[in-house]
Write a structure and sequence with these properties.
The complex is a heterodimer.
Chain A (H helix, E strand, L loop, with lengths): L16 E4 L5 E4 L1 H6 L1 H10 L8 E2 L5 H13 L1 H5 L25 H7 L8 H12 L2 H15 L4 H8 L30 H9 L9
Parallel strand pairs in A: 1-3
Antiparallel strand pairs in A: 1-2
Helix pairs in contact in A: 3-6, 6-7
Chain B lengths: L1 H8 L8 H9 L3 H7 L4 H10 L2 H11 L15 H14 L6 H9 L13 H8 L21 E8 H8 L14 H4 L7 H14 L5 E2 L6 E14 L7 E6 L8 E5 L2 E7 L13
Antiparallel strand pairs in B: 1-3, 2-3, 3-4, 4-5, 5-6
Helix pairs in contact in B: 1-4, 2-4, 6-7
The chains are: A mainly alpha, B alpha+beta.
């Protein structure tokens, strides 16, 4: 691995630190993690930690998640250095006409994310950890994975998968079939007749108007 | 109202803050968005904030009640057929269609076109092998057989060209009124606005300028286009509304009539309002 001479840090040596998880596990982190976790990077810049034997407490993150994030960053240490550190969420709007893709997760990332599941809630844990640590690439992999799970499912299946409760009957879009009786007002005016008919049955959109 | 909104937005996905759900929703395809809207009120509330401006536009068009559903079959084109069209164009001509046009073609969930619009003649012709003008089939129709992608030109005199590039005024009464290009489209746009758009176009494509063969007077600029729809066939020849495929006006729609550049028509495919053929 070539060292990137353009990368400069406000903090100087040491280049490894210790962090401790919510459940008291202690991990060594190196540049690969510090470079990718904006939260840690900022912490080190602000805190000016000289003593690298004292672990930095990360009270929001379980040890298993912290460990996984460290593994992820080790694997991605090279590719991420080349990506400019774009602060903004505007990235989103870079080309308003270019759809964002969720089918571009690399093979390694797919394997990596498989250890986390919705049922056990660990997929959400790793996403929350990535969010807290501000590791953009890991957060994106997690979000894309969930987006892919939503794809091809009808609203019932999505609710079931994520344990989302129904809105009060008679008020929302997701009321079970046949229970929408009264003429709804307000936001339901947004719906076409076709959509009102199809919203519970969720047929293929291609056929919605046939 | 604000209170109700906040209500919808709480607990959209158990255990996940809404800012992360917004990122998740931003990765959904348009088709999935239509289903996701029915998951819960909070999802439905958050989706418009999460999706791209193009999807926002498509969604509001999809939810409007004015989708033209009574069109004859030869004006309907399914997603799969549109996909085939896009693939054909992109592989045959080694280009990538403008994103807005491409996404609309590949993701609009109905065989019926967007409200206030109709599928391009060229697409209908390619797909259904039936002419949208005379509704005759393949061999019988002599209305048009468009070459799908080609270079369209803006031709003008060299002196007008250099006046425009140098920002000098052009007088209509002047000898230089050879510059028909600038003033030749009364049926659609006229006057100052049209002229301004045309001048802009000439500046944008100035680097494609070539001298006309056998003439030192005329020069042409070349713009790669996909013809979409015919217009004004009765009068002086047929005109084509064309989608610009390359250069700085990529994605815009411009007109060419009887082989001459005929002016700006729309900024994008979604703003384009072709002449609707009555069903």
């Amino acid at each position: 691995m070539a060292t990137n001479v353009e990368e400069t840090y406000l903090y100087s040596s040491p280049t490894t630190f210790k962090v401790s998880s919510k459940d008291g596990e202690i991990f060594d982190i190196d540049d690969s993690f510090i470079n990718q976790s904006k939260t840690i990077k900022n912490m080190l810049n602000v805190l000016d930690i000289a003593d690298n034997h004292m672990p930095i407490p990360l009270q929001n993150i379980k040890g298993t998640m912290l460990n996984a994030a460290i593994v992820f960053c080790k694997y991605h240490k090279n590719d991420l250095l080349s990506i400019p550190d774009d602060e903004d969420e505007d990235d989103f709007e870079r080309d308003a006409y270019e759809p964002r893709r969720s089918d571009d997760i690399s093979e390694w990332d797919k394997e990596f994310i498989k250890q986390f599941t919705v049922e056990e809630g660990t997929l959400f844990d790793i996403i929350m950890a990535a969010n807290y640590l501000d590791i953009k690439a890991l957060l994106a992999v997690g979000c894309k994975t969930i987006a892919n799970m939503v794809r091809g499912k009808n609203s019932d299946q999505v609710r079931q998968m994520f344990n989302i409760s129904y809105d009060p009957p008679g008020e929302g879009l997701n009321t079970p079939r046949n229970s929408v009786t009264s003429k709804e007002s307000g936001d339901n005016q947004l719906l076409t007749t076709q959509e009102k008919e199809s919203r519970c049955k969720t047929p293929s959109p291609e056929l919605m108007y046939d | 109202m604000a209170e109700r909104d906040a209500d919808y937005a709480s607990q959209a996905l158990p255990g996940i803050p809404n800012e992360i759900l917004l990122q998740i929703l931003s990765y959904l395809s348009f088709r999935t968005i239509l289903y996701a809207r029915a998951v819960s009120r909070s999802w439905r509330f958050l989706i418009p904030q999460a999706i791209s401006p193009l999807y926002q536009t498509l969604l509001s068009k999809y939810l409007s009640s004015s989708i033209p559903i009574h069109l004859p079959e030869y004006l309907q084109v399914t997603i799969d057929q549109r996909k085939a069209f896009v693939e054909h164009i992109e592989t045959t001509y080694s280009i990538r269609l403008p994103n807005e046009f491409r996404t609309t073609f590949l993701e609009w969930p109905s065989r019926y076109p967007l409200p206030g619009s109709q599928w391009p003649d060229t697409l209908c012709w390619y797909t259904n092998k039936q002419c949208t003008r005379c509704s005759l089939g393949n061999e019988l129709c002599t209305c048009y057989h468009p070459e799908l992608v080609g270079d369209y030109d803006i031709t003008l005199t060299r002196s007008v060209f250099s006046s425009i590039i140098n920002n000098q005024p052009i007088l209509i009464s002047d000898e230089h009124s050879f510059a028909w290009e600038l003033f030749d489209n009364p049926p659609r746009m006229s006057g100052e606005h049209s002229e301004k758009q045309t001048k802009r176009m000439i500046r944008l494509y100035a680097d494609t300028m070539k001298q006309r063969p056998n003439s030192s007077l005329w020069v042409s600029l070349y713009i790669k286009c996909l013809p979409l729809c015919l217009y004004n066939t009765e009068e002086d020849g047929e005109g084509w509304f064309c989608l610009v495929l390359g250069g700085k006006a990529k994605g815009e729609i411009h007109g060419w009539k009887a082989g001459w550049y005929d002016g700006w028509e729309a900024n994008s495919f979604l703003e384009f309002r072709p002449i609707i053929i009555p069903a």
